[in-house]
């Protein structure tokens, strides 16, 4: 089993990486591999709303000049996900949101019924608003949401200072344990022949008519 993590920070080895790495070490301690993909400072396009991904056989975004399609390919073979972001103006980074908008629109099937968790890092405030924004991707895609023993946040303006947030790091470790437990439960259910539920997709309500 493998968990794919996306680091939405422009700083490859900053506080968000510190949080994700704590989850990764916990997962690896129980035999679950992980990969952290860092978006870095490279520019990322917003979704153009062109619907190419809905008609293309490969179900990929029409823009191939950034990391989105590569991440989508990794997502198809992953068993679970953790999305991490620093808090900017009480929101996840615009870069991460652009990536997630395109990933979920072009290839939601790569995420459905796989556990997901959001992690945010911050100096002071805005954590719950940012977590709420990220959690909405999971709940719109039939993904079980992995929780911990507190909101999934780590405090510290630098990775070194975040080491002082003992409860935040504990929260990351407990998140890793919960992710591992859920993945093992899903695996055990599959071996017993428990199938994924069929979703209804026929109703489409527009509230202006």
What do you see in this structure?
With 209 residues, the chain is α/β, with parallel strands linked by helices. Helices cover 41% and strands 14% of the residues. It has a five-stranded parallel β-sheet, sandwiched between helices. The N and C termini lie far apart (46 Å).
The number of strands is 5
Strand order of the largest sheet: 2-1-3-4-5
Describe the largest sheet. Answer: 5 strands, parallel
In round numbers, the mean pLDDT is: 95
Beta-strand content estimate: 5-15%
pLDDT < 50 runs, ≥5 residues? none
**Shape assignment:** globular
Briefly summarize what is shown:
The protein is of the alpha/beta class. Helices cover 41% and strands 14% of the residues.
Layout of strands and helices, then pairs:
Blueprint: E1 2-7, H1 15-29, E2 33-38, H2 52-55, H3 68-77, E3 80-86, H4 94-107, E4 116-122, H5 127-139, E5 153-155, H6 159-162, H7 166-191
Parallel strand pairs: 1-2, 1-3, 3-4, 4-5
Features:
alpha/beta; 209 residues; five-stranded parallel beta sheet; 41% helix; globular
